[in-house]
Design a protein that fits this description.
alpha+beta; 2 domains; two-stranded antiparallel sheet; elongated; binds flavin-adenine dinucleotide
Length: about 160
Amino acid sequence: ADFIVADDLDTLVTRMNALTPDAPVRPDHIRAQIEARDGQLDNPFGKDAQITAIRGARAYRGDRLIRTAKPHAILDPANGPLIAVRLNILTRKSLGGLHSDLQGRVLTPEGTVLPGLYAAGEVCGFGGGGYHGYNALEGTFLGGCLYSGRLAGQNA
Ligand SMILES: Cc1cc2nc3c(=O)[nH]c(=O)nc-3n(C[C@H](O)[C@H](O)[C@H](O)COP(=O)(O)OP(=O)(O)OC[C@H]3O[C@@H](n4cnc5c(N)ncnc54)[C@H](O)[C@@H]3O)c2cc1C
């Protein structure tokens, strides 16, 4: 229900606007942006930040070997069809919410222990809880969730 596939941009945008009539996009605006981007593709000295970043990433040999879709002109029919995806907003990370100590005990705003309340997982904040020091590294949350759950359970 969130995907629209069309062979040309006008059809795509018309159907996008039918799907989200409360947030319509302008066909001329979309076309101008894509044409500007496509126009930079054949220019090795182009200023399009996204294409520059893609070129930088693809200079890495490992990426050159495994990437299957080479950068190409979006509006070239040979590369079609065009696909639009309706985005839905979700909470990606809460990064905490409850201040807790290393035993999983929830602390009051004054920093004293709130008796009987424990927190585990992302809600206890891997930065604030101290499991990750002062930061939270991408891809390392589940370990902290399990570890904080174990500690909170043991201490409870
Ligand atoms: C897209 C995405 C990709 C991720 N990728 C990785 C990854 O590659 N590696 C990694 O380590 N971590 C990753 N994470 C982070 C990791 O998934 C989360 O940190 C972890 O799942 C949090 O687990 P949790 O049990 O603490 O909280 P949650 O899984 O959020 O569980 C909280 C639960 O509480 C329920 N709840 C909320 N309010 C109430 C209420 N009032 N009453 C009853 N229930 C309630 C919710 O429905 C939910 O089921 C990713 C997260 C996201 C969103």
